[in-house]
Amino acid sequence: MRTTVGIIGAGPAGLLLARLLHDAGIDSVVLESRDREYVEHRQRAGILEQGTVDVLRAAGVGERLDREGLRHDGIELRFDRKRHRVDFPALTGGRSVTVYAQTEVCKDLIALQLADGGPLLFEAEALEVEGADTDHPRVRFRHAGREDVLDCDYVVGCDGFWGVARNAIPAELTRAFERSYPYAWLGILADVAPSHDELVYARHERGFALLSMRSPSVSRLYLQVEEGADAEKWSDDDIWGELERRFETEDGWRLERGPITQKSVTPMRSYVHEPMRYGRLFLAGDAAHIVPPTGAKGLNLAVGDVVTFARALTYKKETGSEERLDAYSATCLRRVWQAERFSYDMTSLLHRAPDATPFEGRLQLARLERIATSRAAETDLAEAYTGFPFDEQGDGRGDERG
């Protein structure tokens, strides 16, 4: 089997890349180790930045997004029983975010790819990337009970942190930067209308809480819990009771309860792999970087990566120049590190560390008060939350080795 771009992974990044390349007249093949049902139902991110929404619309998958997605023009910060709303459009020149689950993005992109795109192979497990530093890299994969080879001009690894793509980069050429956090998130899905029409981020002495949603009738909520916590040890009543305590306000706001349909615990970590390119192998999304979910950046960073690659390869096709492909890693890493910085700031601002001192607690409150009273501080948060620009060229510190 032969193609111009071999894409490993049919999450939103790989699927969107296939669509962007199709629109540019560049052929691709997508290999996905899981079956279609799994891909369309795995719960992940749900907040789309303005730039991500714009890209999805331009790629032809905006109809259901615009019909069913929930546009949010702000978030609410809660601390010391007080409430402060951050108005995104007023602070960013009109930008907003949209609540639309990753599962729905995948469904839309899969339907479009199967209708008129290139090959999309489910249950096709990538085994190894060979010859990444040559002009014709290959992906060995297993599909329908036999091994096969996908010959490519380029390979893009959208196969997550545990995928095979990153392993093709020689260890002596790489640097990894990471941080683990001493707490986790207990997340629930509940069949109850959201108790607020925008996301609520709450800092409390007992720990962080987040009110989110998946639809007008389904709430998504999170509690900060200890690292390694077991979701099944939390009863439904205990979860709702703890959420009510952490969201409590001086104006008597109430959290509505409902049947909990899903519980899970998410560990918190930050990770960046440099470089994001080696020869003709390019990493995108979780294969190259992970952010704690507090900043709602994971899916959006992956979109930024594949937009950067698609534009760079289109530029090569139109001009013959590999300048933008050569700059891929540095270009992406500028955005990645800004998102890492923002996600770390939001996490440290709102979570209580197990060994936190009263001094550190008061610093958190002071930082939140600053956001609530300073337009400059509030604008910095709003600009970061609604999204950093895609594909900016220029000087950067990202390592381009390889």
Brief summary of the model shown:
The chain has 402 residues and is α+β, with helices and mostly antiparallel strands.
Chart the SSEs and their pairings:
Blueprint: E1 5-8, H1 12-23, E2 28-31, H2 36-41, E3 47-48, H3 50-58, H4 63-68, E4 70-72, E5 74-79, E6 82-87, H5 88-92, E7 97-99, H6 102-116, E8 120-121, E9 124-130, E10 138-143, E11 146-151, E12 154-157, E13 175-190, E14 199-203, E15 209-215, E16 218-226, H7 236-247, E17 260-274, E18 277-278, E19 281-283, E20 289-290, H8 298-319, H9 323-326, H10 328-350, H11 358-373, H12 375-386
Parallel strand pairs: 1-2, 1-12, 2-8, 5-14, 12-19
Antiparallel strand pairs: 3-7, 4-7, 5-6, 9-10, 10-11, 13-16, 13-17, 14-15, 15-16, 17-20, 18-19
Task: Describe the protein's architecture and organization.
With 402 residues, the protein is of the alpha+beta class. The chain contains 12 helices and 20 strands. The strands form 4 sheets. Strands 6-5-14-15-16-13-17-20 form an 8-stranded mixed sheet. A 6-stranded mixed sheet has the order 8-2-1-12-19-18. Strand 1, helix 1 and strand 2 form a beta-alpha-beta unit. Helix 1 runs parallel beside helix 6 and helix 11 crosses helix 12. The longest helix is centred in the C-terminal third of the chain and has 23 residues. It is globular and about 65 Å long. It starts with a strand and ends in a 16-residue tail after the last helix. The C terminus is likely disordered.
